[in-house]
Amino acid sequence: MAAHFPKGKIIENLIEIKGVTHAYATASGPLPVLDGLDVSVPKGTFAAVVGPSGCGKSTLTKLVAGLMKPDKGEVWLHGEQVKGPRKTVGMAFQNPVLLEWRTILENVTLPLEIVAPKMPKADRRARAMELLDMVGLIGFENKRPSELSGGMRQRASLCRSLVHKPDVLIMDEPFGALDAFTREDLWQTMRDLRHAEPFTAVLITHDLRESIFLGDQVIVLSDRPARTQYVMDVDLPDDRTLDVLFTPKAADMLHILRDQIKIAQGRLEVGE
Amino acid sequence: MLSKIATPIIAVIIFLGLWELLVWVNDWPNYKMASPSDLPPAFWKYKDLFLTMGWQTLWRTVAGLMLAVVFGTLIGMIIGFSKIARDGLYPLLIGFNAIPKATLVPVISLIFIGQHDFNTVLMAFMISFFPIAVSVGIGLSTLEPEYRDILRALGASRFTIFRKIALPKTLPEFFGALKVSATLAFIGTNLVEIVSPHGRGLGALFKSGETNGDYPLMFAVLIALAFLGIVLYYAVIFLERIFAGWADREEK
Lengths: 272, 252
Description:
The complex is a heterodimer. Chain A is built from 7 helices and 10 strands. Chain A is of the alpha/beta class. Chain A has a domain of 175 residues: Rossmann fold, CATH 3.40.50. In chain A, helix 2 packs across helix 3 and helix 4 packs parallel to helix 5. Chain A starts with 12 loop residues before the first strand and ends in a 7-residue tail after the last helix. By secondary structure, chain B is an all-alpha fold. Chain B has a single domain, classed as MetI-like fold (Orthogonal Bundle). The relative contact order of chain B is 0.13. Chains A and B meet through strand 6 and helix 2 of A and helix 7 and helix 8 of B.
């Protein structure tokens, strides 16, 4: 469990999703993606969301970000019902979506131009440099995104999603397109960023190792239309290193999650 | 850098050489095909006319092209952002673009009788706005949703998203279309100058060459038009370097 909320204490849920049902209109009629979904993420928690492909995980991120309204049910952030976009959210996607015509530094300061238009340029720059330093991109701030490797671009993208100090970071498979070694590097960067500046996070992923390395809790969604099928508290040390993934404890957790995914895919009966 | 300038010049010299050779080998008289060596005397003889009429053609073309940029971008924005507008406007745009513009010369000369400058600019505009409208429209409608979402999630307005993301992201497509439009605009200007000559523009000079049987003059006009087209094209390239230079990947 994360250090910033010891067990046993009554804690405020920063993100609260209550009975959310949502369907997309398609040519062949409505396609239900979420069916009475309940998710609570306490303040400061890193929630990793896993589930079968196409089960509605990305829809979940859009609902939390206020980019979409659910057909039924409610999404609460900070004790306020989400009715539209909020300035306190940071987003990162599988595609780093950096603006090619801006330098890395200018990309990172972009959210500040929207959220804090009156902030002096020097302060914006200083804030961006602070984050670029944390992810090891000092010296690349004046390069264009096309001059950077995939992993570096994703690092810059993470800096951009954190530059305005959001209280919720929503990530939709941010490491999905990276090679295995780069991905593990970025897991550690993510962990360090979180230690430096605590935030609540929702991470959509397909990688179970990633979910237990980064998550405080792992939420398994069922197949479409998605419900919460299983929630696992990740009982690993706070300052975990990659080695923790090779312990028997981690192996057990991964095994349980693997079975839960199989159940969600309908390939394993409950209790089998 | 030197080869960047030298290569196109050498290419032009080789082209002129082959042209000269072709005329010489076939022993064509200059009413069939003038040779490059006939051209300098023609230019020299009418140098004042070339300067004034070339300028008339150039400014009217550029004015029409600027109108095309403004209206083409506006139409592109409308069809790029609204699906209803896209469905409604596309057939009209494509139908209009399919009309041979030569058939419109008598129409607009009748509507705006005597307004020769206006008619010429209008034609240059009508023939050149289509590529701009379509490319801006496609650029905006194919913007990946994530690009919008990173700003939309922060509560940015549609206009801010357009200004900070959609507009700069569409610039490479816009300049691609502008290169096509720049040469099209010349065709529009010359259509009016040739079909409904008012003694203005290189088209009228061409027409007078035809009337007087001055074949080297006609060829000289064609070369002058090609030259102006190249100048305008490189002006567009220059603007592209400034505003969309980031899209140019350096070769490594």
